[in-house]
Amino acid sequence: MPSLLARYATPFTTGLFVVSLVSGVALFFHIGSAYFHSMHEWLSLVLIAPFVLHIWKNWRAFKTYFKRPAMTIALVASLVAGVAFAWPSLTGTSEGRGGRPEFALLRAVQTAPISAVAPLFGQDGNGLAENLRARGYTVASTDDTLNGIAEASGKSASDIAGVLAASGGSGDSQ
Fold first, then answer.
1. Hey, which residues does 145 pair with through a beta bridge?
2. How deeply is 149 buried, as exposed, middle or buried, from its count of CB atoms within 10 A (0-12, 13-18, 19+)?
3. Out of 58-62, 97-101, 111-115, 132-136, least confident range
4. Taking burial as the number of CB atoms within 10 A of a residue's CB, which of 8, 31, 36, 120 is the most buried?
5. Alpha helices, DSSP H, located in the chain
6. Range of 51's domain?
């Protein structure tokens, strides 16, 4: 069995890397995201097993890379690049910037006063406030935001979005 695993470690590493490469490029350019998203996530996770087997199989040769500066430089550069991409999210400095445009739009709706959001649902601010109160939400004024109302009501932003979506925008059906 160990020879079977060793025999397939590099071929599976190569095959799954190609799948990850193609799906990653497609996702980067927003081509077929619906097809590639789950494929990329799951098969990239599956790639871990043959990668570990590949390293294990080639450990002697692999250790020699650590005797040269190239490995240290590559690992440090990779770590710096990873931190650079994660930093805005880790520090909260990316709020409202970057990311997927539909999420930015959703954030704008969730953080605007309901008096400004109400026309999106065919109502004025007072009408939307009353409809939300009728569904058990705590609304102090039309200056409250959807996120603030959800929090004050002990609900999530998804809960209040679901109520608004289920009402078909009119806010008058349950």
1. 113
2. buried
3. 97-101
4. 36
5. 2-28, 33-46, 48-57, 59-65, 69-91, 101-111, 114-117, 125-134, 146-152, 157-166
6. 2-57
**Is 63 inside any structural domain?**
no
Q: How confident is the model at residue 174 (pLDDT cuts 50, 70, 90)?
A: very low
Question: Is residue 26 a part of any domain in this protein?
Answer: yes
On whether residue 66 sits in a domain, the answer given is no
HEC assignment per residue over 21-34:
HHHHHHHHCCCCHH
pLDDT at 70: 93
126 sits in the region (left: phi over 0; alpha: psi -120 to 50; else beta) called alpha
Query: What is the reported pLDDT for 99?
Result: 62
How far apart are alpha carbons 162 and 103 in whole angstroms? Answer: 16
Question: In percent, how much of the chain has pLDDT > 90?
Answer: 61
